[in-house]
Automatic annotation (TrEMBL):
Residues 80-99 have a biased composition (Polar residues). Residues 58-79 have a biased composition (Low complexity). This is YtxH domain-containing protein. It comes from the Bacteria. Residues 58-99 are annotated as: Disordered.
Length: 99
């Protein structure tokens, strides 16, 4: 019993899994889960729910736009660094006038 914290975590995990299984079995028996899809659909189509979800959608979209901008900035910075250090292997336009 040298690993008491690990054993306690395992017992809690087993207990939580058992409680979840018990709840699911009970829900299946009394018919709660048969009504669940319709309940979720009704909740998602509720105008108040859609109004609450709108700011979250905007936040996610703004976050995605910010990530795209950061990605472009990182690519530009990497190209500048490679050009400055001479490690850029991308084809360069040669000036045929001086060749």
């Amino acid at each position: 019993m040298n690993n008491r914290p690990g054993m306690m975590t395992s017992l809690l995990t087993i207990g939580a899994a058992g409680a979840a299984i018990y709840g699911i079995r009970k829900g299946v028996r009394n018919g709660t889960f048969q009504r669940l899809p319709q309940t979720v659909t009704n909740a998602m189509n509720n105008p108040q729910m859609q109004q609450m979800a709108k700011p979250l959608q905007n936040m996610l979209q703004n976050n995605q736009n910010q990530n795209n901008q950061n990605s472009q900035y990182n690519q530009n910075a990497q190209q500048m660094l490679e050009t400055y250090t001479g490690t850029n292997t991308s084809p360069q336009q040669s000036d045929s006038q001086y060749s």
